[in-house]
Design a protein that fits this description.
The protein has 13 helices and twelve strands. It is of the alpha/beta class. Strands 3-2-1-4-5-6-7-8 form an eight-stranded mixed sheet, sandwiched between helices. The longest helix has 29 residues. It is globular, with a radius of gyration of 23 Å. The protein binds nicotinamide-adenine-dinucleotide. Nicotinamide-adenine-dinucleotide (NAD) binds next to helix 1 and helix 3. The site of nicotinamide-adenine-dinucleotide has 28 residues, from helix 1 and helix 3.
Length: about 375
Amino acid sequence: MKTIGFIGLGLIGGSIARATRKIHPDYKLIAYNRSRSVIADAIAQNIIDDVCEENDPRFLECDYIFLCAPVEVNLKYMDWLKDSIPANCILTDVGSVKGPIHQKVAECQLQSNFIGGHPMAGSEKSGFTFSSDRLIENAYYILTPGEQVPINLIADFTDFIASLGAIPMVLTAEEHDFITAGVSHLPHIIASSLVNLVKTLDNEEEYMKTIAAGGFRDITRIASSSPDMWQQICLENTENISNVLDDFIRLLIQVRYTIDSRDADALYQLFASSRDYRDSIDVVDNGLLKRAYILYLDIADETGSIATIATTLAMNQISIKNIGIIHNREFEQGVLKIEFYDDASMNQSALILTKRNYKVYER
Ligand code: NAD
């Protein structure tokens, strides 16, 4: 039996609260959210037990406090908590960048209470309305414990995150921010820049835009993400992003030289080595560089749920090219990814699965 507090009950806070309620119905959940209608919904749906006020002393009785409000609000809360938080209370957040919050942790001397958190799941939609008890299921959940958190509390909190169905991974804040700069932040910047480049180069008839299907659409899909969120991430992880951008620019200059000098061997190497490495990353997620016919859907983590879908499609003579769970779903929706051989199979499957009440996403 634990008591868990939420400050901010939006998409991420609401999803963690829902998952906790489902898996640990005996735990006591309390929450403060600026918008009272959210809290009223959460009480009506039996997601939380008690409503808190701002800086409510009841938070100090919690085993875990989740900071899930916008970053500046979370930072302000740490000033309030620093003098009164009990030694055995774990304070955690869900932010996409870990450096600034850990800096604040050091300033507030909360190193023995704070375990940074970053669930690699989410959506472009925000708010409690879109929260789901399945959002973090089978998603990586990065944990960045403060240097002085007792090992037993780290183990206890890691077990709790795993119990919700997420996949905990413990890193330092520096490792987290460097890794995400390379595999998440840089790709978003490249995708947005590529889209802006094509917008600039296109003619009045917009031939580029018209023809830009397949590969271009796949590689730039993430350019449709929330500008607010990406502005915030770039302002928070500036140094790491700037460094990986430098490396990328150097690589581009090298590629331009290879092309200008018509160096056939080097060009082959460029594409062969990227293909080999890309193929080794994730055999399921191979839609990045070529046109892919992919559906994403939400499914429960239950024995046989993938088999049921495969059987349903097979009964309709639809062949599946690839199928698998997506573990990194930050800013995306849909837990299961199904790839088909052609457009018709994908569209027919979307109809069949929607009719069977699966939540299907196409992108
Ligand atoms: P959200 O907008 O859905 O939720 C934020 C909640 O905080 C809202 O319910 C809002 O009413 C509440 N709030 C705002 N100001 C408040 C205040 N002063 N006091 C109390 N509550 C307040 O946002 P979200 O998508 O849940 O994002 C929350 C955090 O999660 C962000 O730090 C974000 O970086 C991180 N995150 C988001 C995603 C994603 O894909 N959305 C993924 C991983 C991490």
